Amino acid sequence: MSAADHADERFAPSAEFSAHALIRSRNDLNALCERAAREPEEFWGELARQELHWFEPFQRVLQWEAPFARWFVGGRTNVAYNCIDRHLASWRRNKAAIVWEGENGEQRILTFQELYREVARFANGLKSLGYGKGDRAIIYMPMVPEAAIAMLACARLGIIHSVVFGGFSPEAIKTRVDDLEANLAITADAGVRRGREVPLKRNMDQALRDCPGVRHCVVLHHRGARDAQGAAIGAMQATRDLWWHELVSGQSEQCAAEPLDSEHPLYVLYTSGTTGKPKGVVHTTAGYLLQCHMTMQWVFDLHEEDTYWCTADVGWVTGHSYIVYGPLSMGATTLMYEGAPDFPQPDRFWRVIEKYRVSVFYTSPTAIRSFIKTGDEWPQKHDLSSLRLLGSVGEPINPAAWRWYHKVIGGERCPIVDTWWQTETGSIMIAPVPGAVATKPGSATLPLPGVQADIIDSHGAPVGPGQQGYLVIRHPWPSMFRTLYRDDARYKEVYWSRFPGIYFTGDAARRDADGYFWVLGRVDDVINVSGHRLSTMEAESAMVRHPAVAEAAAVGKPHELKGQALVVFATVKSGRQRSPELSEELRDWIASEIGSFARPDEVRLVEALPKTRSGKIMRRLLRELVVSDKVSGDTTTLEDYSVILKLSSEGKEEEEILSEKKGS
Ligand code: WT7
Question: How far apart are CA 303 and CA 296, in angstroms?
């Protein structure tokens, strides 16, 4: 399906939506964009003064020594203060800040005042253990309010946090603890998913086995988790582990927010790159918060009375920017749900929307596609009339899924904001401003104010309408990441060397005749599985750590629900036999090395991998093979073409064996 096929299908915002929107017309939006392009520093400087609380004003808006940026230089502020304290002076003190629902239907609602008390007590607890500005905390938590409380308590004190998604394995936690030199860990006994306990504390114990730098591990008593033998999951270690409730008991409910430099690191979030080692994306304080805050207005058109729900996990950047920091900074009510979308039945999301009268709903194309599959009867059982705006994030949304979302969930009444951004960009960069921009299914539409996005060819020249090219951003923006943690060289190399002075996103895109952006996907060895970024190199390095594996090559393959699925080709060491059982074992192996979301759809054990004469694995051929089961194109560099022929027939045979097994 090409972008051009859909360039004519348009959905203009209704007069009613626009009349109540924060930005009501294309003219108003254009005026903002033009101003931001003409005078970026005045534009962002004014917003920063107006929209954030400052303990000390900044002297200068931007200091840009490419590729290193400093925003709001000399200013002092605090993210937690902006997200909580400033709302306490108004009626918002008794407004719901966090509405939480657990998988079994448990419910908790924290007002801004209650959130303040919880954050203050936890921050005081951390202080009492000696933690403060510059320390580094790994947060490995389920989707509970305490995840946000832990993040905000760190932000309050200037402790740099790194949230690790609860689906990651002990191995992945350890890599992050080591890279960050974390000295504090925060976790829970367990989380829950489809009625099953996720043993977070046990994973943490395993990860920390060789991490002597971590002095304390604070454990939230969430599930009262017991394993099959009835013992608490993960025994508490006397000198290291503390229960959350014991730590906060008796702590003062007052805790002053630390006035932090605008550029103080707020968090490091690890994301996959093209090598085996995850990249520690560093976000800082003022610029990050400002752009999260502004995009809540520009993209989500946030109104005081909205109940806003982003279904991401706090472990991903979407959870940081659009469950915690952006919404709370705006004084919004943000909903958190711990559990699976289809538990106990496939209508769980729609039940939650109906129950809490959610008005703004933000989810992923993968989730939407799985809802389509389970059938319209599930959403149709529920009153979704509270919804007024829908959002999508994580991967390109295919037009068919877009139309379903619009019709069945949005009742043809709600604009859809397809939001393009990345862990690195910190906040949404390209998305429709819903009261002002007509949408087209599959297009993220136009760059937001202050975002100088462009599409260029390999020589750096802008490409014309309809032409495919590299998506880049030309001017620094406040919520941009500042570097990769303790690796300026890799930061320069990965993002700024291909087009000097210009940020390279790693995505391919094209623009249509209306100037709308159509993001096509990654151009590097990174794949997108259910909206989660996965490096094929990371999967390969995990694979060759298995004692039976000699060599491995991982590629992405289009997948009906997940967008892309991971397929790994591997050869075995001499003395080992290829078998369907070993394939299965290797799928589990990757899941345990990286995390369950990385479990490959297929591990194909083959006799040899196709290589160039210089010995490089030809992943392009493997990609073609998984798509079409045959190879075309230039194979003159292929060392041994017969390898490819063998691969296609072997793959087939193996499939036959597996389907036979299933059938029997
Ligand atoms: C990559 C970033 C942004 C938070 C979630 C993912 C792809 C993301 C879209 C979209 C097309 C998209 C891109 C991007 N992507 N949103 N609306 N349309 N592609 O964050 O893990 O940093 O991944 O996800 O390829 O580069 P991430």
Answer: 9
Question: What residues contact residue 493 under an 8 Å CB cut-off, 6+ apart?
Answer: none
CA 75 remoteness from chain centre: 28
Nearest CA-CA partner of 416 in 357, 378, 370, 362: 362
**What confidence tens digit (pLDDT) does each residue in 441-490 have?**
999 999 999 999 999 999 999 999 999 999 999 999 999 999 999 999 99
Give the bridge partners for 68, in sequence order.
65
Tell me the pLDDT tens digit for each residue of 535-558.
888 899 899 999 999 999 999 999
**pTM confidence score:** 0.91
CB atoms within 10 A of CB 380: 11
For residue 141, give the amino acid letter: M
Local structure of residue 513 (DSSP, 8 states): T
| Mode of pairing for the β-strands spanning 416-419 and 60-65 | unpaired
Rounded CA-CA distance 509/468 in Å is 6
Summarize the confidence of residues 15-44 as an average pLDDT.
Answer: 98
Q: How far apart are CA 593 and CA 575, in angstroms?
A: 24
Task: Find how far residue 187's CA is from the centre of its chain.
Answer: 20
Q: What is the pLDDT of residue 453?
A: 98
3-state secondary structure 213-245: CCCEEEEECCCCCECCCCCECCCCCCCCEEEHH
Distance 289 CA to ligand 1 centre (A): 20
Of 92 and 635, the structure prediction assigns the larger pLDDT to 92
Distance 231 CA to ligand 1 centre (A): 41
Question: 122 with 184: CB under 8 angstroms?
Answer: no
Q: What is the spatial distance between Cα 361 and Cα 353, in angstroms, rounded to a whole number?
A: 8
pLDDT tens per residue, range 303-361: 999 999 999 999 999 999 999 999 999 999 999 999 999 999 999 999 999 999 999 99
Write down the residue that tokens 């991490």 correspond to: 211
CB count within 10 Å of CB 377 equals: 9
Residue 508 CA, ligand 1 centroid: distance in Å: 12
Residue found by looking up tokens 């890599």 in the block: 175
Substitution candidate for ligand 1 out of 519, 527, 597 with most atoms within 8 A of CB: 519
Pick left, alpha or beta for residue 251 (phi over 0 → left; psi -120 to 50 → alpha; otherwise beta).
beta
What is the DSSP code (8-state) at residue 507?
E
Task: Compute the distance between CA of residue 371 and CA of residue 391 in angstroms, rounded to an integer.
Answer: 15
What are the structural domains, with CATH classification, of the chain? 108-265 (3.40.50.980), 526-663 (3.30.300.30)
Residue 526 makes CB contacts below 8 A (sequence gap 6+) with: 272, 273, 274, 506, 533, 534, 535, 536
Q: What is the 3-state secondary structure (H, E, C) of 555-596?
A: EEEEECCCEEEEEEEEEECCCCCCCHHHHHHHHHHHHHHCEH
* Coil vs helix vs strand at 598: helix
- Which mutation among 393, 402, 530 tests ligand 1's pocket best, with the greatest number of atoms within 8 A of CB? 393
Ligand 1 center to 522 CA (angstroms): 9
DSSP symbols for 334-364: EEEE-S-TTSSSTTHHHHHHHHHT--EEEE-
